[in-house]
Amino acid sequence: MTIPGNAVLVCFILCTYALQITCQETSRLKGDIIRVEIASVGHIYPDSLGCLPYVGPPQDIALDMIQRKYEGVFNFSLQYIFDRRIKSCNELGDNAVNLLAPWLFKPRNAKIVRALISPSCTDAETFSLNQLASEHNLLMITSINNQNVIRNKKLSPTLVSVSHYSDGAYFDFYRAIVTTYKWLSVFLLIDDSTMPQYYVIVSRTVVQSLSTIINQTVTVRHLKRSQPIQYQEALREFQSVSRVLLFFGQAEHARSLLIHAVSLNMTDGEYVYITTETFVYPLLFGKLDWRYGDENDKVARDAFESLLVIRPVDFNETLPPGGAMNPAEISQRALSNYNFSLLLTEQPSLNLIAAYLSVEMFAQVLNESFVKYGSSSLTDGRHLAGMFIDKTFDTFVGKIAIDGFGQRTVDFMLSGFDATNTTFTPFLFMNTKTGKTQVLKDFSWTKGKTWPPRNEPKCGFSGDSWDCRTTTNTLLSGSLTAILIMALLALFALIYCYRSHYLAEKAYFNHILWRLDEVLLLPAQQTVSHGDT
Ligand SMILES: *[C@@H]1O[C@H](CO)[C@@H](O)[C@H](O)[C@H]1NC(C)=O
Ligand SMILES: *[C@@H]1O[C@H](CO)[C@@H](O)[C@H](O)[C@H]1NC(C)=O
Ligand SMILES: *[C@@H]1O[C@H](CO)[C@@H](O)[C@H](O)[C@H]1NC(C)=O
Ligand SMILES: *[C@@H]1O[C@H](CO)[C@@H](O)[C@H](O)[C@H]1NC(C)=O
Ligand SMILES: *[C@@H]1O[C@H](CO)[C@@H](O)[C@H](O)[C@H]1NC(C)=O
Ligand SMILES: *[C@@H]1O[C@H](CO)[C@@H](O)[C@H](O)[C@H]1NC(C)=O
Ligand SMILES: *[C@@H]1O[C@H](CO)[C@@H](O)[C@H](O)[C@H]1NC(C)=O
């Protein structure tokens, strides 16, 4: 069988045409897929929980997930931006803007959607990147650091934080506790001796929060890096001005403080000690336990009854078993991508969870905005950041809420030491979104004393206020009258002396033509200040 020549030609033309159409079709389809470029600034030296070897793997796992979930709609890519010479969070803070700039200014198709999703490990980094993101209307999401500049929407119109550290929750909860129990004088003790940044940030927030309460007295003291640490000195000062001590420092220092308090009789139920813990991570925050296997265990156990602890409800959250975000997968990726052995038994999984959430929630917002407002809405960082505000997201760890400032809300609880099973049990809960507190159970305070202890003991902080002297009223008023009479007599005598002296002097000065002010006779040196000695 032979095929005529022009039939072959016609077939060829038709085939080419068909191929062309198919090509055009696929390229049109491809054009419909929205390209999304995510930049993640960080450093790869594993000195902190905010570095890429920790947060990179969960971000990558989340990226794989959203790539599958939104296939055909979005095509995501995530670029890590780092410099091997940068070895610490502080150096990164100084260089973050320079690192991001080439990515930011790279010429690209205007339709490409961009966002900055970084752990951010210092305030300085958040601050500088936020400024850049805001100038360029670029959505920025942080997963580790949360700087309170986020509350200023003029300065941070595109900033969102899914960090587990919820500044607003600490602000509200400390305020709620102090007002609920009517503690008008509190003493803040900030431990400078071994200080994760967390304590500095929380104590700063608490000072701000308490200063919004009318008639509140706040005394702030730092425990210096001296050896030995001056606990007794701090406790004596506390005793003279307050009965409620808010402690910001590592768990073992809280324990030492309480052991010293026992020796000063300051654990009798008149004094309250409140510490805080953001998540269980002994390497950084210490172990909040009376059992250290030393000679002080028994004393500490007793003293812990005077200690309360403020914690987020999910402070001991673990990674959900099964699913893509499992410990084995994270470790494997950390090793293959960063040559880093990530020991998950020692990891605060809350940070890993937050890194995953930053990517997962970003994709949800992108999809929703695309469906509701079309593709042009996706290049507007302000608009995207606005879509996080006051919203609750369904995520792989359940519902996650974002507040009116664009930061994650975390519910809090206050726990007391349960003497029967010697663990901390929550008794007061705050729903951060509504700001309402709820009593979970009756709390029995140490040594059978009534809860809550008074802000100030009946006889004042030093034990000798006027109220307490009324018992010796008659005696006191008797001697008071005597003192008064004597004072009056002395006054009359004085007036008499003065009058006679004055008259004599007046007579004398009548004969003098001038008088110098004594100030004029003093040397000019007098203005030297009486400052530091
Ligand atoms: C996604 O984009 C990359 C380039 O960034 C491209 O190589 C890849 O083929 C794209 N994937 C799809 C499914 O379009
Ligand atoms: C604050 O203190 C003053 C003076 O002691 C008192 O008159 C006032 O009622 C107090 N205000 C509040 C809100 O407690
Ligand atoms: C502590 O209180 C007990 C009894 O309440 C008393 O015997 C002891 O002297 C007190 N110690 C100090 C240091 O005040
Ligand atoms: C935290 O959780 C782990 C594992 O679930 C448990 O062994 C540990 O005792 C918990 N720690 C605290 C302080 O609750
Ligand atoms: C990976 O780390 C180990 C030590 O932790 C080192 O000996 C090895 O050279 C590293 N491998 C690469 C490819 O950098
Ligand atoms: C994208 O958003 C729309 C509207 O909210 C929703 O119906 C759809 O399920 C979302 N897509 C995915 C993959 O979740
Ligand atoms: C300890 O006991 C209290 C009640 O006395 C209980 O509410 C709490 O759940 C117990 N905690 C543990 C860890 O068993």
Automatic annotation (TrEMBL):
Compartments in which it is found: Membrane
Keyword hit for Transmembrane helix: yes
Lyase recorded as keyword: no
Residue stretches in coiled coil: none
GO CC annotation terms, alphabetical: membrane
Ranges for domain Receptor ligand binding region: 62-414
Keyword annotations of the record: Membrane, Signal, Transmembrane, Transmembrane helix
InterPro entries associated with the record: ANF_lig-bd_rcpt (IPR001828), Peripla_BP_I (IPR028082)
Major subcellular site: membrane
Pfam family, one: ANF_receptor
Signal peptide per UniProt: 1-18
Transmembrane segments: 475-498
Name this polypeptide is given: Receptor ligand binding region domain-containing protein
UniProt lineage: Eukaryota, Metazoa, Ecdysozoa, Tardigrada, Eutardigrada
